[in-house]
Every structure is written in structure tokens, then in C-alpha cells.
Amino acid sequence: MFKKLLTAFAALALLTSLAACGPVSSTEETGTDPSAPTGQTAPSTTTATEGKKPFEEQVLVDNELVTVKLTGVDEKNFWGYTLKVFLENKTDKSLMYTIDNVSVNGFMCDPFWAVTVAGGKKANEEISFGEGDFEKNGIETVEEIAFTLRIYNSDDWLEEDLVNQTFTINP
């Protein structure tokens, strides 16, 4: 008798857990309100980004050796919150572009970003922040990103940096 009761309880628990993982409701799938008359949709919700001003391109460095521009932000990138950057190497050497001491809203984060650009070449790159850093630090909206941009000869690490400068941006 005890085994039958335990088996019935386990089956009920399994069914309950499967029901919780069931299909998404029609409101979540289509945005329609099942209680609204046919053809009407549920009212839209305001997102955190609707009140923000539009992104404006920011030139971080533009000199006779290099150019670095922040060209965009993708808050919903597959890899996480992403900064889009344009890099130009105006020298004849291969240059390494890195960022160090990165903080988002005052919390240290590490996007693990480094890119080599060959002499005389340009690149469009992305700096992505993992969702784990944001979740761990309770970051829901990016207000400020601070970092040190370092650009150096990728073939001679002992050579003096072309750029070693700290920036604070408000994307």
C-alpha cells in the first residue's frame, strides 16, 4: 500500500513539473490578449530603452597613428551587451587593440577583448559583455562603462604603447 501511495505521489509531482514546463501561453507567443475581442492586441509594455536618447557615434582616438570609434550598441546581442567599434591602423605595423580595467556601472567586468589589425588596415569589431557579469552584479541597465584602451605593436611588446588612455562612456 505504501509503495502505491509513493508511486502515485511521484507521478503527481512529475505531472506538475511537466505542466510548469508546458507551452507558452498565447499572450506570450503572439502578444494578443485572449480576453480581448478578436483582432485586438494586448497593450504594449514600456521597455527600459524607450526613454533613452538615441546612440551617437563617439570618437575615442583619432590621430596620425590610429582611429578608434564607438559606432553602436547592441543590448540584445547573442553574446550579451555589445559595443560596436571601428578600428583603423594608420601605421605599417600590426597593432593589438585591448581594453583593461573595465567597469560597468562601477562593477568590474571582463569582456576578454583583444584584436590585431594589420598595418594600413581597418576593422569593425564587437566588444561583448557576458550576461553572467551583469546578473552577478545586478546590472539591468548600462549607465556607464569605464575602461583603459591600450594599443601597442603586436610584434614587439617592449615597444612603448601607442595609446594607453582611460575612457568613461555613457552609451
Give the gist of this structure.
This protein is of the alpha+beta class. The protein has helices spanning 2-20, 26-30, 131-136; strands spanning 58-62, 66-74, 81-89, 95-104, 107-108, 114-117, 122-129, 145-153, 163-169. The model is unreliable at 1-49 (pLDDT under 50).
Instruction: Find the structural class using helix and strand composition.
Output: alpha+beta
Q: Main β-sheet: number of strands, strand sense, barrel status? A: 5 strands, antiparallel
N-to-C series of helices and strands = HHEEEEEEEHEE
Strand content: 35-45%
- Poorly predicted sequence stretches spanning 5 or more consecutive residues: 1-49
Portion of residues in helices? 10-25%
How confident is the prediction overall: mean pLDDT? 78
Rg (CA only): 25 Å
Overall 3D form? globular
Write a structural description.
- The protein is of the alpha+beta class.
- 18% of the residues lie in helices and 37% in strands.
- The protein has three helices and nine strands.
- The strands form two sheets. Strands 4, 5, 6, 8 and 9 form a five-stranded antiparallel beta sheet that branches. Strands 1-2-3-7 form a four-stranded antiparallel beta sheet.
- A hairpin with a 2-residue loop joins β4 and β5.
- The protein is globular, with a radius of gyration of 25 Å.
- The N terminus is likely disordered.
